[in-house]
Amino acid sequence: MTPPSVFIAGPASWNSIVVLDRLPDPVPHMQFAEETWETVGGTSAGKALSLTALGRSTLLYALAADDAAGGRVREALHGAGVPVHWGGSDETERHLNLMTRAGGRVSLYLASPSAQSGEIDPALQAAMAGSDAIVLDLAAEPLRLLPAARRTGRPIWVDVHDYDGEAEFHRPFLDAADAVFCNADRLPDPVAFLQDRIARGAMLAVCTLGAEGAVAVDAEGVVHRAAVVPVAVVDTNGAGDAFLAGVLDAHLSGRAVPEALAAGARSASTVLSTRHLHPLLDPILG
Q1: pLDDT per residue over 44-64, tens digit each?
Q2: Contact at 8 Å (CB) between 240 and 105?
Q3: How far apart are CA 45 and CA 272, in angstroms?
Q4: CA diameter of the chain
Q5: Structure pTM?
Q6: Which stretches of the chain are DSSP H helices?
Q7: Over the stretch 230-269, which tens digit does the pLDDT of each residue have?
Q8: Residues of the chain below pLDDT 50
Q9: What is the 8-class DSSP label of residue 153?
Q10: DSSP output for 81-129
């Protein structure tokens, strides 16, 4: 296996998307869906798709079962040209995402991969050690890989999504991270959180702000802001993953933080115009 520039470990799933005029109230009632479809999901699959589209050598490590959902995910990612090292599982991850046009979302996990154990595949260890960067997403298997990833000495990038500043599961990822990404959904003060991550040793910390763009703090403590790229929004799934992919690709190409953030915004805009995680999937999934 030739080492990739970027090694990504984490979820690839099969998702059912339901678009509603509003997210459901927590009371018994009936609502009509505006639109529904099925597609590839998973934060790691989204990052791998965007990096592949940017021409960055990438290897995705994900778990899937030998079931119908797993077959759909494998076929779609293969068709999109994403190199994947598949690990086995009892079930393929599946989600039901309730969405609004404005980007509101409730994700219901219908199935999750079984826990893995034993020695880490030597091919995965070699891929991590030979990479320019390692992306570990929030899931049990990337957490299992975390000690091995740290031993490689390669930069570790993590995406803690809607972290609230307190959840324990996120802490090992944050402690290991050279670059931290999150969104502002549950952070009372995003800039203070980013500054804290830099103070704790990260070289870059970034928070996406939805329609307001993104804010970042670099290793010198300088605060940077980036605007979104205007685009007609079809679906917001995967925008944050595409943003991280754009920033990472630009960073590895030697771009400064402002240029990298602008690249992230351009990358995110490409996925907002499709109902799939990336336009690479459009000819495959329709």
Answers
A1: 999 999 999 999 999 999 999
A2: no
A3: 16
A4: 54
A5: 0.95
A6: 43-53, 68-79, 122-130, 140-152, 171-176, 190-199, 239-252, 257-272, 282-285
A7: 999 888 889 999 999 999 999 999 999 999 999 999 999 9
A8: none
A9: T
A10: T--EEEEE-SS--EEEEEEETTS-EEEEEEE-PPPP-SSPPHHHHHHHH
